[in-house]
Amino acid sequence: MARKTAALDAVAGIIEDWRRERPELDTSPLEVLARLHRTFLRYSAKLTASVESHGLSVAGFDVLTALRRAGKPYRRTAGQLADSGLISSAGVTLRIDRLEKDGLIVRERDPEDRRVVRSRLTEEGLAKIDALFAEHLENERRMLAGLSPAECRQLARLLSKLERSITESGAAEPDSSSGG
User: Fold this and answer.
1) Which of 28, 30, 123, 170 could be bridged to 34 by S-S, CB 3.0 to 4.6 A?
2) pTM of the full predicted structure?
3) Which residues in the chain come in under a pLDDT of 50?
4) Kind and range of the H or E run holding 123
5) Is residue 14 within 8 Å of residue 178, measured between CB atoms?
6) CA dist., res. 36 & res. 31, Å (int)
């Protein structure tokens, strides 16, 4: 039965292989982190497909959600966008250029300090992100349907704790191609 379970759970198969090949190693971190990695890859693929079906990249989606979360008048500087959460500073200008070309945002110079440029959602951008974000949340609800509300709350607490543990571990930033 263990092999049938391993066929359904690739991580269990990986752990079984390592236990056979290197029984002296404690593979317990894989129980959590390999599953987390595989879960993220599946989540990312679903997110990407949903966002791209609306003619956006995930990076563009991140910029639009950051502007929407800013509240009226839905604007931020490139630096504020980079600091807002999920957006790296490296590609903010390229993302802004594309969104502006698509008519979803406009750039505005600060009237008191012309060096300051803010990106602002257009009406079209606001309508698009409002519709897309509602769809995004529904998509996430479907992905979490196999968990009870209590399990979701518990998992959220545990993932928050895991993030702190990883941050505090002092480990070097991992290569994104890890997996076992």
Assistant:
1) 30
2) 0.79
3) 1-3, 5-7, 175-178
4) helix 123-143
5) no
6) 9
